[in-house]
């Protein structure tokens, strides 16, 4: 389905992504992990064609992606929607309009200029928001929502394009534990129920282990691990994050696990109190 072959991106003489090769045979939920600067964002940006590859090839269902131009490139970008750590919503615009922005590629300049959306699109936007549990926020300005709600609006905007692939660059890095869990649960559900491929850069091991079918580990631009969560042992993680770093599972652990531990502790304490 998706073939990435010897993909390289150089900035000057530095390779941000260095000869990356992997294949995805069927829609999966894939986590990309690695230290800051490992090349995770650059890889996603090349997949989405926000950034051009220096060398190498990306094919999707047999078609070469790296050379697409103009309308064909934009069409590809709507087939693989991207969501970001900072949500990238229009803060002062209401939630529904933010979601309807996801149809921009397929609309005329004139209807865009006058904010004219077909009623069917508005209904669909509300349905998607409802599916994500935030239909009630539809008329509010995006800036009035919590971070977790805003990220769900961004996911709704992505779904509006009906993409085959969702690329998520550190989607939970700015969120508190509970919202991080809600957003990851939403991405997992979208993968399972709709059969969409999800590729998410994640800054922590435990989230990748918990939500993904497959984990790709990057270090200095190279793919140094590609396997199942079960294969991602502490030793493998040490290779990805670097043996020199005072590596510990704890230090790369997200707040989701912390939340679980906290919740478990609270439950124990509650039980003890009875
Ligand atoms: N536009 C750019 N110009 C120059 N260097 C860049 C640019 N984007 C990323 N890099 C460099 O490429 C490397 C990989 O960056 P990035 O893909 O953002 O890593 P990650 O997302 O894993 O933190 C880093 O060394 C970064 O400084
Ligand atoms: Mg990054």
Write the layout of secondary structure elements.
Blueprint: E1 2-11, E2 14-24, E3 29-33, H1 40-47, E4 55-60, E5 63-64, H2 70-79, E6 80-84, H3 95-100, H4 109-113, H5 119-131, H6 147-160, E7 165-169, H7 177-194, E8 197-201, H8 205-211, E9 214-219, E10 222-227, H9 234-241, H10 255-273
Parallel strand pairs: 3-8, 3-9, 6-7, 7-8
Antiparallel strand pairs: 1-2, 1-4, 4-5, 9-10
Helix pairs in contact: 5-6, 6-7, 7-10
Can you put this structure into words, describing what you see?
The protein is an alpha/beta fold. The chain has a single domain, classed as P-loop containing nucleotide triphosphate hydrolases (Rossmann fold, 3-Layer(aba) Sandwich). Helix content is 39%, strand content 22%. Helix 6 runs parallel beside helix 7 and helix 7 crosses helix 10. The N and C termini lie far apart (55 Å). The model has no long low-confidence stretch (mean pLDDT 88). The structure holds adenosine-5'-diphosphate (ADP) and magnesium ion (MG). The site of adenosine-5'-diphosphate (ADP) has 10 residues, from helix 1. The site of magnesium ion has 5 residues, from helix 1.
* Poorly predicted runs: none
Per CATH, the superfamily is P-loop containing nucleotide triphosphate hydrolases
Globally, the shape reads: globular
> How much is the radius of gyration in Å?
20 Å
Share of residues in helices: 25-40%
Q: Residue-averaged pLDDT, rounded?
A: 88
What is the CA–CA distance across the termini?
55 Å
Assess the beta-strand content as a share of residues.
Answer: 15-25%
CATH class: Alpha Beta
Query: Given the helix and strand composition, which structural class is it?
Result: alpha/beta
SS summary, helix count: 10
CATH architecture: 3-Layer(aba) Sandwich
What CATH calls the topology is Rossmann fold
- Number of discrete domains: 1
Give a quick account of the main beta sheet: strands, pairing sense, barrel closure: 6 strands, mixed
* Ligands, deduplicated: adenosine-5'-diphosphate, magnesium ion
Order of helices and strands: EEEHEEHEHHHHEHEHEEHH
């Amino acid at each position: 389905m998706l073939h990435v072959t010897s993909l390289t991106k150089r900035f000057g003489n530095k390779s941000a992504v260095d000869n990356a090769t992997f294949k995805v045979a069927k829609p999966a939920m894939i986590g990309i992990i690695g230290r800051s600067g490992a090349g995770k964002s650059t890889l996603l940006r090349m997949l989405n064609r926000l950034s051009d590859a220096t060398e190498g090839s990306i094919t999707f269902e047999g078609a070469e992606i790296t050379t697409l131009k103009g309308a064909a490139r934009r069409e590809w970008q709507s087939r693989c929607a991207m969501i970001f750590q900072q949500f990238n919503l229009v803060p002062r615009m209401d939630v529904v309009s933010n979601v309807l922005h996801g149809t921009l590629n397929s609309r005329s300049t004139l209807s865009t200029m006058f904010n004219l959306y077909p009623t069917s699109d508005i209904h669909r936007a509300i349905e998607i928001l409802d599916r994500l549990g935030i239909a009630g926020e539809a008329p509010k300005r995006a800036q009035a929502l919590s971070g977790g709600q805003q990220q769900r609006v961004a996911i709704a905007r992505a779904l509006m394009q009906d993409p085959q692939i969702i690329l998520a660059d550190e989607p939970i890095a700015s969120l508190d534990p509970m919202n991080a869990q809600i957003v990851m649960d939403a991405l997992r559900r979208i993968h399972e129920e709709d059969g969409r491929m999800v590729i998410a850069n994640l800054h922590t091991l435990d989230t990748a282990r918990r939500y993904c079918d497959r984990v790709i580990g990057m270090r200095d631009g190279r793919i140094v691990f590609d396997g199942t969560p079960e294969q991602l042992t502490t030793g493998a993680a040490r290779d990805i994050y670097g043996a020199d770093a005072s590596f510990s599972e704890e230090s790369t652990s997200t707040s989701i696990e912390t939340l679980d531990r906290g919740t478990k502790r609270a439950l124990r304490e509650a039980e003890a109190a009875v």
